Amino acid sequence: MKEQTLPTTWAFGLTEEQQRQISNGLEQETAVRFWKEDTLPTMADMEHDTPCILWLSSASLHALQALPSTSTRHLELIPKVLLLDKHYSIKDFEEATDLGIAEIVRPPFTKKRLRGVLMRAVEVHSIHHDMLCMTREIMLERELLQRKNDLLSFLVSFFTSTTDNLQMDAILQKVYSSMGLLLPVKGMHAALWQPGGPMGTSVSLYVNAPQKSTAFNKWRALLLDHVRPRMEGRLRVEETTHLCFPEQPDEDQNLLPDAGNLLCLPILVGSEQLGVLVLLTDMHKNLGRDQIAALDSAMRHLALSLNNARRFRMMQLQADFDALTGVHSRRHLEGRLEEEFERFTRYEQPLSVIIADLDHFKQVNDTHGHMVGDTVLREVGAILANSIRSTDYCARYGGEEFILLLPHTEFNKAFAFAERLRKAIAAHSFTSSQGPFSVHASLGVASLDKETPHSKESLIQEADVALYMAKKKGRNRTEGTAPQKMRKLA
Fold this sequence. Notes:
Helix content: 40-55%
Oligomer: single chain
Strand content: 15-25%
CATH superfamily of the largest domain: Reverse transcriptase/Diguanylate cyclase domain
Structural class: alpha/beta
Shape: rod-shaped
């Protein structure tokens, strides 16, 4: 807006005499801009001059009223003053009142009269300007308050939703829902890693795209490219999980990385980086300071939640797997045995169990030491785990005992498989400071089919009985109880 020292007034369609009277009467009081009837002021002219009065004659008022309202709508914002002719009538007053004229000046147009009109118009204009400024300030305050309220809603939603779960993918699903309160998010992907260990850095990828799709492969490659420069040594992908967000449109699940702007957010706990969160957005401007601060707080909280989830997962793994041998623990066996027995009951497919016990294992500890004994258990566990199918199951049952569950496997096949395991253990060469040595194992096999009693306890007990028979008959052998010979236990 152009600054002026004097208030500006406009005069539209005045006669030369009226123009002279306005100029003489308001000399040094206002800057008057005269407009002819064939030249209508535009909105740009009004924004430039911000006039506080529009002087009109009776003729120019009627001419203005004859024009289309769309071309004169902006002039309605200016107070209008009617300069009456010498031969005016009561009808002129009535028409002026009906047409929304602010003031009417009768001739003669003395300096005092014109100045009084001008002063009142300037005062009204000043009040109007102050009210406009106040309105703008109120709107700005309201906008800022709404923005702070939105940020607060985002933080409350984010903090609440990311603390009520200890599963990684469930936490990330809640994060996606909350992020929509702050940013126009179209997709979200993540990489979380666990550095260290002899196997190198293990990384878990969470991709928001259908598996085996082009989008899935693109996002997976992008996450790995982002992770590799931050890692030292070998990088091992532990798993790639398909993140599914129920509220996300189907078409957004197949968006490629170039379908918007990428926002890469590090997941930090102190100075340690646990991973990275990659957001696909359609933002066209940078974030504000308050949004950055809110996002920073949210990411720090997310890092703590994911770190707790990671620790919980490690505790689960420690409980589910035997720390020494790497196979499943006896605690985990109970749940898996229940699952396999329910599957057997429903589909009546055969189910076999093998219990393997190392012969004279105490002599190994006494002769070579407990550290070598631990090595033997680890290597035997590896032999068993590497020999079974993906549908089979291996757990450490006791000190030197292992148990294998073989779903969809009848007795004869389970017995033959147990014999192969026995021979593989006997053929394996173990080493100690005293030189190489061998270890033997006794194995017991039992099976269930639709003709046998439906009891998982009987299955384990029969395998244990078969193992006892193998021990009694001289060890380093396999014994078994076929389904038709199984005893019905009380």
